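Weekly structure sync, notes
Attendees: PL (lead), two postdocs, one rotation student
Agenda item 3: pending single-chain targets
PL asked that the sequence for the first pending target be pasted directly into the notes so everyone works from the same version. It is reproduced below exactly as submitted, 375 residues in total.
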Amino acid sequence: MMKNHVRYFIVCVLFFVSAVNYADRGTLGMVKTDLSRDLGLNPVWMGYLISAWGWSYVVAQIPCGWLLDRLGSKRVYGIAFLSWSFLMFLMGFAKFLNGRLAFVVLFALLLLVGFSFAPTFPGNGRFVAAWFPTRERGTASSIFNASQYFSLVLLAPMGWIIHRFGWQYVFWTVGAAGMVLSPFVFKMLHSPQDDPRVSEAELKHIEQGGALVNMDLGAKTGARFNLKWSHVRQLLGSRMMIGIYIGQFCITTLTYFFIQYFPSYLEKRGMSIVKVGLVAMLPAICGCLGGVFGGIFSDWLLRRGCSLTFGRKLPIVLGMLLSCVMIVCNYVHEISIVVAIMCLAFFGKGFGALGWTVVSDTSPKEITRLERRAV
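Predicted structure, written out during the meeting:
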């Protein structure tokens, strides 16, 4: 019998950090109407700003993966949280600029924010792979994945802040909160073998279940991951991994449609900014619930004797099919029906969001093996 379940505390910390991460990604979507009016930025300039962090985020994925391997999950993860929070705080000071200068400053800060965002979800995947047996990863990954929907619950008060104080206070609030909370994240996250709270029984359970408990050993002992260009070619050439990449692209597209454009869509339909924050919570909560249930259902299938392939694929297929009901919104004009459809679509989208679980299950294991550095 295990004496504790520290691994579920770890995944709750991942859920919290990821929720803040997604909330910070969505702040520009919340403030863009007021920001563009105050700073004199036209829709084309705003389009560049909204996409700016995404460009650097994509570019930074592989270097950030290398940093996580080289320096360890905890260090890179914590520094990233502190960095993007500080940059978000600085963005509030664009209020005192105007026109082209405001655009250049915000664009530069958003590029840096994208670099800082990049380690979060690869880091999540590493923590889950290190802390959770294979048969529990669906549930664990679905918990931190559900954070992207819960983030809109965190964004709900932002409408009131914009209305009461101004858009700049949104950046100051989320930035200051992140900087204050960063030390706690550093303190609470550990690798399995370094965590003083984990029992021998739990450590044995997760290691025997397939968890990669030695994943961060190289950051402390001089060992390094045996990553070669042949491994990269293997990842890019694997039919299964290509399927994961395409699936993640589609899932992520839905996510950013919701975070970046759904609030402004509601605002254009006549809702006040305060009401937008509250209404946008409803699909977010449904997506959060769908994400958790999808992971639980996937792990339940494995416990019932289904193959790993079937246990992961079925929730993904069912969830993606359900999310397609979003198309109906094009033919509906009643805002309450639109919100109801979005609730159903995002429950499905969450239910099928098992991409990080599949990555943990199927990535070539030789890439995670350590070899001792020559002295």
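Discussion points:
- The beta strands are 223-225, 370-372.
- Residues 301 and 310 are 8 Å apart (CA to CA).
Action: rotation student to compare against the earlier draft before next sync.
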